[in-house]
Design goal:
heterodimer; A: 302 residues; mainly alpha; two-stranded antiparallel sheet; 13 helices; 77% helix; B: 286 residues; two-stranded antiparallel ribbon; 10 helices; 74% helix; globular
Chain lengths: 302, 286
Amino acid sequence: MGNSNKRNRVSFSKKFKEASIHGCFLVNAILVILILVGIFALLVWTSLPAFKEISITEFLFNTSWNPTSYVKASYGILSMLVSTLIVTIGAMLFAVPIGIGAAAFISDLASNRVREIAKPVVEILASIPSVVIGFIGITLVGPYIAKVFKLPDGLNAINGSILLGIMALPTIISLTEDALKSVPKSYTEASLALGATKWQTIIRVRIPAASSGIIAATMLGMGRAIGETMTVLMATGCANAMPTNVTDSVRTMTSAIAIELGEVAFNSTHYYALFAVGLALFLITFAVNLAAEIIFNKKQKL
Amino acid sequence: MKNKFNVITEKLGFAVLTACLLVVVLIIVIIFTNIIINGHSAISLDFIIKAPTDGMTKGGIMPAIVGTFLVTVITAIFSIPLGMGCAIYLNEYAKQNLFTKLVRISIRNLAGVPSIVYGLFGVILFVQFLHLGTSVLAAGLTLSLMTLPLTITASEEALKNIPMSFREGSLALGATKWQAIRTNVLPYAVPGMLTGTILGLSRAAGETAPILFTGVAFYLPYLPKGVLDQFMALPYHLYIMATQHHDITLVKPIAYGTAMVLIGLVFIMNLGAIILRYRLRKNRKE
């Protein structure tokens, strides 16, 4: 009896130790949720004072963002929103086809050895810091654009689009490749057995079968492009006006925050308004990522 | 039946796909050669070990290198335990329930939060609320939150690669769950976890937006003496040299030199991680 009692006590302290270790790890997981909720909550909390002075309709639909005006300060984010959209859509226009093409090459055409080299190369592109890409935009892409479009300088929406496209490529390539890899082999074999060429199989069977994964990849790449700061800050010229042309200099939401937060008076309406821009940015990227996830999960169920 | 038309379209199609990958490779080659060609002449021992002088038109970038190193170390101190702990929870302890699902959704969404938004969060929470001021600590904490999703995902991947039999063998011999994890899972998973962590840290080292308002300084005549001091950082230094300096053409060589050091640093960290992973995969196959 005594013996078993002792054993019980040992196992109790053991159980307690096990439970507390379990608890320690659980805390980490809880923290992750708290961080996401915390980011959202703090952004809402800090931008609320801004909406005491700015109406939501002005914030969303006024085309003029001029918080430092002596006459009447205006806080409309529409021009930034349009700028972000133009630059992002431009980026996707060339990053999506090239990204899908490169992914199809890596997954379906490349030999094992080429694949072993190509994948790390794509990762290297992902690792280049955004500030370096922005620097390339100023020194290399900018002058070239200025020459082609006969402009005084090449810091505009096109430049930003090209750079953001480059930055979105690795995301699009690696996720599209994953999507192509997960297309069941039977699809490919059936298509080839029916006499289709390898090319026809890729274009008409494999890519359509992977389409939801590819759309999700595109959306995640888009999310990255929308939230990118340094590249657009350096390469788009950042003129604070409603863009009318792709060769216009644009100021995106991210670069507006980056430029103005350093100069603004602490706890002024302008300060709060910049956090409201951050909140809008957070909500947009959140929606884009959520949409990507929903589309991706739909595929999983099929 | 392959007819001539199909053969030609196939060849054309394959050429297009190959061209797509070549464009990607070409972009990388152009970026690297451009920076190396224009940057290598700026690199010298003095450039690495001296502080900027003469209104940042001469001298080196030592304080920026030290600052980036410091902030990366702080990032590592916070993101490694938190990231690995969360990964261990998800892979070893978590059950398939709503809570686990919420954690996973949070991780995926954190990965999509723009870096400048992390910066805003850092300003409110670390700089103001926790009274850390604009400091290398506040910046490091902000960066560690940003790298967290990457660290967790990569660490979990490493844990997943450890066969179930390793855990079962240990449990069958009477080990507790934690003993099994500590002795039979972690020793094999840690190298893989580190690979992902290094990739995350290399991204932190190259980031600018999250540190813009949390601690980075334009120019400091001295090195940070403690974690509550401001610091200079390579990516921000490059940004200044490329756009904010009063004589941009004069300091262009310094900008290129800074870009080369930054790219070199990030490249070495990435290469290290890739080689580590490659060797791990090879070991596993054997």
